[in-house]
Amino acid sequence: MNTVQADRWRGVVERTWRPAALLAACLAIWHLVTVTGLVEAYLVPSPAKTFGLLVDKWSYLSGHTWVTTYETILGFVIAGILGVLMAVAMVYSRTVESTAYPILLFAQVIPKIAIAPLFVVWLGFGFEPKVIVAVLMAFFPVVISTVTGLKSVDTEMLELAATMGGGPVKTFVKIRFPAALPHLFAGLKVAVTLAVTGAVVGEFVGSNEGLGYVILQANGNMDTPMLFAGLIVISLVGVLLFLLLDLAEKLMLPWHASRRGAAVTTLLAKGGS
Amino acid sequence: MSTDVTVSTSAVAINDVSVRFQSKRAEVTAIQQVSLDVAPGEFVSIVGPSGCGKSTLLKLVSGLLAPSSGTVTLLGEQVRGPRHDIGFVFQRAALLEWRSARRNILLQAEMRGMNSAEAGKRADELIEMTGLSGFENALPHELSGGMQQRVALCRALLHQPRVLLMDEPFGALDALTREQMNVELHRVWRETGTTVLLVTHSIAESVYLANRVIVLTRRPAVVNEIIEVDLPADRDYSATMARPEFASATAHIRDLLGAVTGHD
Ligand SMILES: Nc1ncnc2c1ncn2[C@@H]1O[C@H](COP(=O)(O)OP(=O)(O)O)[C@@H](O)[C@H]1O
Ligand SMILES: [Mg+2]
Hints:
The complex is a heterodimer of chains A (about 270) and B (about 260). Chain A has about 270 residues and is an all-alpha fold. Chain A is about 85% helix and about 0% strand. In chain B, strands 6-7-8-3-9-10 form a six-stranded mixed β-sheet, sandwiched between helices. Chain B is α/β, with parallel strands linked by helices. The site of adenosine-5'-diphosphate has 13 residues of chain B, from strand 2 and helix 2.
């Protein structure tokens, strides 16, 4: 193993050992609490039982997991596209901004759980109401972060663009939008976790599939191991989607990641002027 | 020959221009009835107290700002809206941080839809001329302040503009880097023959580089005095600094600026 590989390996260990230790500690406490009988088994099942169930009933759980994941991704993608378009319209038009902002804020503060039943009434028990709730949850952070990003370009850069004569479309494509990407990604990461919540809330309100349905059923049957298993899978879906976005950001914006990281040293070693 | 010819042969003609800004509280007159003619190929420095209207003057010439009264003529054509036949360098390099040095320079070509092969060749020449060789692929955050400003200069020169506007381009650099940049800018100017308007706070810089130095008064800016720099065309840095003409010109400008800022 050469030193670069060794360094990289050490970096991975450095980053992961603390969260891994904390997770292990939580599992240990959970285990102890259940084994010692401090908490009744029907209230909190042991980790062994929960994970055992997760494995045994995986064929049942995986179908529902896929449903929730599908609703989440669909809602997230729609919110992403609509959110970016809305943000662009707001940044380029005062009128759109002043008209849309109050409505946007109003839509954001309405509790989604309270309006979800309405969508079920309108659209039935299919995936549509879940997707709509996911979109409503994820839309706001995308708009806000994209607006912030598009406005973060400094005026001198835009003045330079004006003297270069590329017109508004080229200025947007080559300067404004790429400059907004770090902000946009920050918004997308928040949005994807909210989209998971949105999909599950939609399922709570009226559904016969998905992890929200699984949890509701388990709750009704006092099946706490299944309830815990459902919760764990939902969390894992959220974490996985978040990590995928994080990876996409690193691949698409290496300049942004490296500016915060340690890659600077390679060039400084070459010597500046 | 008629007087019209003299007007139309100026690279930049500022004619009785005033600029007023309307703020919430009051109206601010930044520039008051300034007139100035710059000949093609001339290097003109502009000095004056902070906030007197120097940046405003360059924005007028580039068409980024419209005068409240008077006219600005650039290369024989009256300025009405942003002009594309100039190069602009600001105090901050204003580079796109996701683009390499070379691709930042080429932004100029992409925005203008220039032939990419020609633009690439020209970019390489400029990189060579400004000593950026070896750093073409470096990202802005990997470059020193001086290097970043060189990239900004190359970008401003890529389309071979006949007029180059520079607003305190070396203001953020350390003294030594600044001197190096002065020497390089002098050489670039000699090689390209571009007309340059340079706004600066450094009196030494203003004299070393220019044919003429325009000294502005406090706001509202009017032209206080125009100093003809009586130095040889080709200027070695240390030799120029040591010349008596250089010393007297800088002393005179310092007096003028002291006089306009002194009794505040
Ligand atoms: N867009 C603007 N709106 C209002 N006032 C402005 C604007 N731009 C510049 N000014 C004012 O005009 C004066 C001249 O500004 P500027 O040309 O930037 O000065 P400087 O000589 O330092 O470059 C300053 O007092 C500044 O506050
Ligand atoms: Mg200024």
